[in-house]
Amino acid sequence: MPTPQHSVSAAGIVLDATGKRVLLIHRRDNGRWEPPGGVLELGETIEDAVMREVEEETGARVEVERLTGVYKNMRRGIVALVFRCRLLSEPLPQTEEAITVAWRNIQEVPSLMKPAYAARVLDALDNGVHVRAHDGVVVLPNTAVTA
Question: Which of 9, 22, 54, 117 is the least crowded, having the fewest Cβ atoms under 10 Å away?
Fold first, then answer.
């Protein structure tokens, strides 16, 4: 039996100076609001992938600060590594990958995104590292671990 294949992605959670707003993108490909992120390229470090993806999708440069969560999409075999980032330059209003790049209030996150993606943002607000599994939409019960 062949070894299962997984894909690894990386995402950046960027808060404004007040800590009350998060930088999000309204994706062109699926029409969803999500934190910026995407699949790691071969030969690319995880930190470089986070910085590249945030810049490609928002136009902003960031510095990676710390890991906040590891999330596995059980249906698609994608493992996402999510990091808090510090903003180094201002975002653009839109990019080739995002219809809209915007600062959104943290309170809006649960109504803007699917629960599996909202968890990534909300988990990044504390000092823990969260490990969760989801089905692409909903965080699966009894899969949450916080270190």
Answer: 9
**CA-based nearest residue to 115, from 83, 137, 144, 145:** 137
Q: Please tell me the predicted confidence (pLDDT) of residue 1.
A: 77
Q: What phi and psi, each to the nearest 5 degrees, are found at residue 65? A: -100, -55
50 has a pLDDT exceeding 80 = yes
Q: Report how far apart, in Å, the C-alpha atoms of 103 and of each of 15, 45, 56, 92, 107 are.
A: 8, 27, 16, 11, 12
Q: Report the C-alpha gap between 12 and 23 in whole angstroms.
A: 9
Nearest to 17 by CA among 95, 108, 117, 90: 90
3-state secondary structure 34-61: ECCEEECCCCCCHHHHHHHHHHHHHCCC
| Model confidence, pTM | 0.94
Q: Which of 75, 85, 89 is nearest to 121 (CA)?
A: 85
